[in-house]
Amino acid sequence: AVLLEGLQLDNLAAVEMLRANFEVSCGRCGARDTVTIASSAVASGSGSSSSHQAAATGQCQRCAAAWSIVMRPHFVHATSNSLCVIKPEGCCPVDLLPSLLGGQCGECNAVMSLRDVQVGLPFSRNCSSCHKEISIYMAAVSFVPKGPPRSAAASRRGVARPGAAAARRPRGKASGGGAAELRPGQPLPALGTCKHYRHSYRWLRFPCCGMRFPCDLCHEDAVSDGHPARWAQRMVCGFCSSEQPLALGCRVCGHQLAGSSANPSGRSTRFWEGGTGCRDPRRLDKKDPHKWRGRNKTISAKQSRVGPKPWSGKGGAAGGGGSGSA
């Protein structure tokens, strides 16, 4: 089941998935890909989940392994945050990308479309009938399995075979690709690090495409259309996989996830270390030559000789010519 965590509905009676965009990982090689599943339109307000199912099939672009996903949408309302139920075969869902939803106004019961609804970003529009503002917000999305747990090899094939070996499953690389399924409370692959930033233990959700990457360089390498990256406002902790607003530390587990401009590595070091250590001259060790670098530079004394400029707002020579007498 796909659950919407931290769901907030304002003036919306019900919401249903119309066209879902999922990010999936191949069960054989772990390569990531996107899949679009289109469902039926929003049904009449009966209060029950839709019985219509939608399916999508494809194959991995790396190893050509076949996979399929069957989706059955649910009605989301104030007392239910279950968006849909999906049944993957040969792949594993990783994330929910910006999708098309259908909503029912809480005032006039009019049905309208909610386009490009993204996890972590509030979406609002005006009702097409009564023109009242409606909004939806979901802080995170989680994929909760239903039924008894299956082995790793059976999960990749969609068949529960006892005694199937899971040792042939390739281990995730330290590139931060994140092919494994994310579960709250468990660490990210390689603790969220990548080959560009070894001391950044988090994934960033970029609002330009709604996808999660360890850094902006990984975003540029992975996107196919080459769109520029926008400044990320949300992140996923590399130690507990909890999604939250962007910060240097995790609000859930308390781990330090990244450093600041004065301390890029995030470690308690007092040396320059080629620019990757401490950059604050006040905290640098006295044996580090960067602490005293630039102390003997010439400082301009023109301001003390001629005074501040009239437009600088620091007082100045606005009435300096009135000291003489006739």
From TrEMBL:
Residues 149-184, 261-326 are annotated as: Disordered. Residues 279-288 have a biased composition (Basic and acidic residues). It comes from Volvox africanus. InterPro entries: Znf_CHY (IPR008913), Znf_CHY_sf (IPR037274). Keywords: Metal-binding, Zinc, Zinc-finger. The keyword Metal-binding applies. Residues 313-326 have a biased composition (Gly residues). It holds the Pfam family zf-CHY. The lineage of its organism: Eukaryota, Viridiplantae, Chlorophyta, core chlorophytes, Chlorophyceae. This is CHY-type domain-containing protein. One of its GO terms (molecular function) is zinc ion binding. Residues 187-255 form the CHY-type domain. It comes from the Eukaryota. Residues 149-167 have a biased composition (Low complexity). Coiled coil: none annotated.
